[in-house]
Design a protein that fits this description.
- By secondary structure, the protein is an alpha/beta fold.
- It has 3 domains: 256 residues, NagB/RpiA/CoA transferase-like (Rossmann fold); 90 residues, no CATH class; 67 residues, no CATH class.
- It is built from 23 helices and 12 strands.
- The strands form 3 sheets. It has a 6-stranded parallel sheet, sandwiched between helices. Strands 8-5-6-9 form a 4-stranded mixed sheet. A two-stranded antiparallel sheet has the order 11-12.
- A hairpin with a 4-residue loop joins strand 5 and strand 6.
- Helix 9 packs parallel to helix 10.
- The longest helix is centred in the N-terminal third of the chain and has 23 residues.
- The mean pLDDT is 92.
Length: 472
């Protein structure tokens, strides 16, 4: 992936993408505002969610051990994965042990984070996404661009073309004469997926929450595909980040109010599925829980950055972010796009790559994300914290950056009055050249990056120094 500025510049040139994003995010914002406005105690709920998350993270070791104990007692098997590579190996080995060569999946950002589908494919195992948006992304050989609506960058006509072109390669083909009517598209997806649900013996899921007191995993979704995946196969493998733990069912109740209103603008999720281990005559016969670290412990060690682990993946911050709305999710180079991705990804992956070093700068710091976050993550604060880390890393490794060069030049100019006076005279001359326009449409050299997308205000035609000498 290119760095965020390069990827965003490319996305800004796609007018259709910008129209799709603007329409979708505007619709979701309106629904969220209406749903949140119904509750007089919304701010109290936000504060409760924040407090629960922070208390849980302070005692995360205790609650994780409790999860392992309860899941094991209920007939499940718990596996610990310190990184993505170990998590992939565990899941591939578990699927191979069943003798099956295909799995159905419930939408899971953790499995996308670790690249599970690619690892399964390398092992000769086909993974079929069952969430409608994820199915669109998979059939289109694309990547998700939104936490809640992975195919938000596609419109109905594009989805219809993808279904007609690719459905037959994965199973039941799209019906002849398929239109771009949403009901027709949903019916085509339903027919295509029903075959997978009835045949699959292994399912892979994530979880929105893990309730420590009973070892219960929770998935919330809107289509029913999760319910099918979680109940029909003989083997269920759930890959869950260690930060998804909540201590009690009473704590869960708070998040079951916060999440649907913040994400889909609904009072409650249409489908809320919970499972605790295995049962003799109900659901899968074998259950495996893979607890994923992959940088989360390192993030937890940062007193400021650990706020990112409070995230409940509602996507509210994406829907209000002016940067995301114009650049789209692919520009972030991560499964976690938008403001939350800009603070979560560099902590999970580190800031060794140019892509991850650029993410903390993918923001205007307007603060809209903080205002809508249901668990009150101060994203602007963490962005500034990570920017400082990037600068410190660059200084230690002696990496020249545009900012460093600019500051060095500024120090040289400001350290001597005659140099400052010369620069001021030059800027005044530029102001006179700009004339009555009041702006400069093109700046020279590296400054041209600014005027590629906007005008620069013209400098005053007379500096304060010159005015003072003339009048005083």
């Amino acid at each position: 992936m290119p760095t965020f500025p390069s990827a965003a510049k490319s996305a800004l040139g796609n007018a259709q993408l910008r129209r799709n994003l603007a329409h979708a995010t505007d619709t979701i914002r309106g629904k969220r505002a209406a749903a949140v406005g119904e509750l007089d105690d919304w701010e109290d709920l936000r504060e409760a969610g924040r407090a629960i998350k922070e208390r849980t993270l302070r005692h995360l070791d205790h609650y994780l051990m409790q999860v392992e104990e309860r899941v094991t007692a209920a007939g499940g098997h718990v596996h610990w994965a310190r990184d993505a590579q170990e998590a992939r190996r565990i899941v591939v080995d578990l699927v191979r042990a069943t003798g099956e060569r295909e799995v159905v999946k419930v939408k899971s950002m953790a499995t996308q984070e670790i690249g599970l589908n690619e690892a399964l494919a390398d092992a000769g195992i086909s993974a079929y996404e069952t969430d409608l948006a994820e199915l669109i992304v998979q059939l289109g050989q694309d990547h998700p661009s939104h936490i809640l609506v992975p195919a938000i960058h596609r419109n109905r006509a594009e989805i219809r073309d993808i279904f007609v072109r690719a459905m037959g390669d994965y199973g039941t083909a799209a019906p002849a004469g398929l239109s771009d009517d949403p009901h027709a598209l949903a019916e085509a997806a339903r027919r295509h997926l029903r075959e997978k649900f009835l045949r699959a013996k292994v399912a892979v899921s994530g979880a929105n929450f893990l309730v420590a007191e009973t070892g219960t995993a929770v998935v919330v979704e809107s289509e029913g595909n999760g319910r099918m995946c979680l109940t029909l196969p003989d083997t269920l493998i759930s890959v869950v980040g260690i930060e998804k733990v909540v201590p009690t069912w009473r704590d869960l109740e708070v998040f079951l109010q916060l999440l649907p209103r913040s994400s889909t603008g609904e009072r409650m999720n249409p489908y809320t599925s919970t499972w605790t281990g295995t049962a003799a005559d109900d659901g899968p016969k074998t259950f495996h829980l893979v607890l994923l670290d992959a940088g989360r412990t390192d993030t937890l060690a940062d007193p400021i950055g650990r706020q990112a682990l409070n995230c409940i993946r509602c996507s509210a911050c994406l829907n209000v972010c002016p940067v995301y709305e114009r650049a789209g999710g692919h520009a972030y180079g991560s499964v976690y796009p938008g403001p939350i991705g800009a603070i979560l990804t560099p902590q999970l992956r580190g800031t060794t790559s140019a892509v991850d070093r650029s993410l903390p700068y993918a923001s205007t710091l307007c603060g809209a994300c903080y205002e809508v976050c249901p668990v009150k993550i101060n994203i602007p604060e963490v962005l500034l914290h990570l920017r400082a880390r990037v600068v410190d890393d660059s200084r230690r490794r002696r990496i020249p950056t545009p900012e460093k060069l600019a500051m060095s030049a500024a120090r040289w100019v400001l350290s001597h009055p005659s140099r400052l006076a010369a620069v001021q005279r030059a800027s005044s001359a530029a102001g006179r050249l700009a004339g009555r326009r009041g702006h400069i449409s093109r700046l020279p050299g590296p400054l041209s990056a600014w005027t590629e997308a906007r005008d620069a205000p013209a400098p005053p035609t007379e500096t304060f120094r010159a005015w003072w000498r003339r009048n005083r």
